[in-house]
């Protein structure tokens, strides 16, 4: 149990009959009149649904002990993604529903954080940015600004991102894993 005054981003709460909710953001509000309260944005760990919830300040909420482990993506076995625990070398199979959009940026050997609760994988987190090689993109045509100066490029994972016209096939770029946006070239 924890108080709503102790909430932090990333903390996992057990609400509504055992459902797990991750705190995306929170704000303590002390109005001129009336009691203080905490306004939160919570994300359902299983479904990904985001809701706004308000708690009275000091209210007790049940927290879930979520174990975040550093794991390395090993390979894809059928539809499952196989991750290896970096400490115990145990391998776990994670379903595509749990890996979700993270699969767009996963390559063999990439390290990720896997959140576990009672032996079950909840979600997979990658660093904020990853470096990937462009597998294919059309050459940028000089003077073509009708597309706002960007063009589609297929990454080595098969995912497509928008890149500036000067980027060519074979270049290594940095991509934001939260938004899928191009961040810049990687100087080798």
From TrEMBL:
<dbReference type="Pfam" id="PF01132">
    <property type="entry name" value="EFP"/>
</dbReference>
<keyword id="KW-0963">Cytoplasm</keyword>
<comment type="pathway">
    <text>Protein biosynthesis; polypeptide chain elongation.</text>
</comment>
<dbReference type="InterPro" id="IPR011768">
    <property type="entry name" value="Transl_elongation_fac_P"/>
</dbReference>
<dbReference type="InterPro" id="IPR014722">
    <property type="entry name" value="Rib_uL2_dom2"/>
</dbReference>
<dbReference type="InterPro" id="IPR015365">
    <property type="entry name" value="Elong-fact-P_C"/>
</dbReference>
<comment type="function">
    <text>Involved in peptide bond synthesis. Stimulates efficient translation and peptide-bond synthesis on native or reconstituted 70S ribosomes in vitro. Probably functions indirectly by altering the affinity of the ribosome for aminoacyl-tRNA, thus increasing their reactivity as acceptors for peptidyl transferase.</text>
</comment>
<dbReference type="InterPro" id="IPR001059">
    <property type="entry name" value="Transl_elong_P/YeiP_cen"/>
</dbReference>
<dbReference type="GO" id="GO:0003746">
    <property type="term" value="F:translation elongation factor activity"/>
</dbReference>
<keyword id="KW-0648">Protein biosynthesis</keyword>
<dbReference type="InterPro" id="IPR013852">
    <property type="entry name" value="Transl_elong_P/YeiP_CS"/>
</dbReference>
<dbReference type="Pfam" id="PF09285">
    <property type="entry name" value="Elong-fact-P_C"/>
</dbReference>
<feature type="domain" description="Elongation factor P C-terminal">
    <location>
        <begin position="130"/>
        <end position="185"/>
    </location>
</feature>
<dbReference type="InterPro" id="IPR008991">
    <property type="entry name" value="Translation_prot_SH3-like_sf"/>
</dbReference>
<dbReference type="InterPro" id="IPR013185">
    <property type="entry name" value="Transl_elong_KOW-like"/>
</dbReference>
<dbReference type="InterPro" id="IPR012340">
    <property type="entry name" value="NA-bd_OB-fold"/>
</dbReference>
<feature type="domain" description="Translation elongation factor P/YeiP central">
    <location>
        <begin position="68"/>
        <end position="122"/>
    </location>
</feature>
<comment type="similarity">
    <text>Belongs to the elongation factor P family.</text>
</comment>
<protein>
    <recommendedName>
        <fullName>Elongation factor P</fullName>
    </recommendedName>
</protein>
<dbReference type="Pfam" id="PF08207">
    <property type="entry name" value="EFP_N"/>
</dbReference>
<dbReference type="InterPro" id="IPR020599">
    <property type="entry name" value="Transl_elong_fac_P/YeiP"/>
</dbReference>
<keyword id="KW-0251">Elongation factor</keyword>
